[in-house]
Amino acid sequence: MTKSFNRPAVYAVFNDADKSSASFAVRLMELGIASRAEAKPFAMKWASEKHSNEPIKQGQRGMTFVRRDTNAERAMNRVLEVCYPKADAPKPKTPKATANKVDAVAKLVKSYTALTAVEKRRFLKSI
User: Which of 32, 58, 76, 81 could form a disulfide linkage to 47, CB 3.0–4.6 angstroms apart?
Assistant: First the structure.
């Protein structure tokens, strides 16, 4: 038994969903909010008010909800994802992992050779 679907109707829903994020972002830009980062405090406050005034705190890295994984936090993330989909955002370029590697032995030898004779003797006595 196979189900038949109205493909054009299904695709119409997908097309509307695809266009919606762009229209939300444009509407927010017209209001002066140009990025997801700028929209986050407003979305957080909106979600807090919508979900029984979930408490918000200002931490070292910005605003967060006091309790994690609440309905308010999920609502905020859902709204931000609809307005600013991560799939459309450019991926940040990360340096290669080998670029940060430093040979520990070479670093120690270089530090040791930079010591004066007195410092070298004092170091060898402390070992």
Answer: 76
Work out how many domains the chain is built from and give that number: 1
The DSSP secondary structure of 21-37, one letter per residue, reads: HHHHHHHHHHTT--SHH
**pLDDT 10s digits, 73-127:** 999 999 998 888 876 556 667 666 666 677 888 888 898 899 999 988 888 888 7
For residue 2, the SS3 value is coil
Q: Please indicate, yes or no, if residue 111 is contained in any of the structural domains.
A: no
Is residue 83 one of the residues assigned to a domain? yes
Task: DSSP for 83-116, please give it.
Answer: HS-TTTSPPPP---GGGG---HHHHHHHHHHTS-
In a domain? residue 44: yes
pTM for the model stands at 0.57
In a domain, 125, yes or no: no
* Distances 81 to 20, 21, 90 between C-alpha atoms, Å: 11, 8, 15
